[in-house]
Amino acid sequence: MILQSDIQGGAELVPDGESVEKTLSIIELIGSGGTAGMVIIAILFVLLVFAIYIYFERLFAIKAASKIDSNFMNQIKDHVTNGKTDSAQILCAQVNTPVSRLINKGISRIGKPLEDINTAIENAGRLEVYELERNVSVLATISGVAPMIGFLGTVIGMILSIFEIANAGGQIDIKLLADGLYTAMTTTVGGLIVGIVAYMAYNHLVVKTDKVVYQMEAHSLEFLDHLNEPI
């Protein structure tokens, strides 16, 4: 039996008058975008997986770097005050965090001018910050590239649609025209979603990294102040 389309309702009518609501799953929506649309969506999916992997890998690394015993600096001060630099270095090696590595670098320079100790700690701090920020810039790149890739799919989809209209010869194939429009819309949405996720992940990691850097600076200053105290 032939179905009649309800133009105003956007649904289909069967002979008994009941309307049948049309649905479209995400898989069908992607598949309707044609080969170009599916290729671009596949690229965006790979970027999304890569962004999520980098985010969680860096998040766990930063969390591990931020964990330090609140009594750590007190123990370091006691060892340094009593001249037990070896014990202080062993303690730093056991803790093995960016803060402990900076303090260990400072302890290894004890006996030299305070300015030299400060310089050594600053140089070590730059290396630690670089390690914390490893691959984080990739998230910023993905957040900018993903929408552009999505817009590329939009342009391709619109070109396909215009091509079908130009070559229709007065008889437009609605299905081919719809495929071009699907390519245009799905890739745009996909690119924006990936870009938003990557941008949020990047900013969250930046905030977390800044907290660890502040922690490193605070403990380094505390260590230098202790060395500068009169005996």
From TrEMBL:
Q: Which residues cross the membrane?
A: 36-56, 136-160, 180-202
Q: Does Oxidoreductase show up as a keyword for this record?
A: no
Coiled-coil stretches are: none
In the UniProt record, does the keyword Cytoplasm occur?
no
Subcellular localization, per the record?
Cell membrane; Membrane
Pfam families associated with the record: MotA_ExbB
User: What's the superkingdom here?
Assistant: Bacteria
Q: What is its main location?
A: membrane
Annotated Gene Ontology cellular components are: plasma membrane
| InterPro entries documented for this protein | ExbB/TolQ_transport, MotA_ExbB_proton_chnl
| Keyword terms of this UniProt record | Cell membrane, Membrane, Protein transport, Transmembrane, Transmembrane helix, Transport
Q: Which GO terms describe its biological process?
A: protein import
State the annotated membrane topology for this chain.
Answer: Multi-pass membrane protein
Q: Which family does it belong to?
A: Belongs to the exbB/tolQ family.
Q: What is this protein called?
A: Biopolymer transport protein ExbB
**Biological source species:** Gelidibacter algens
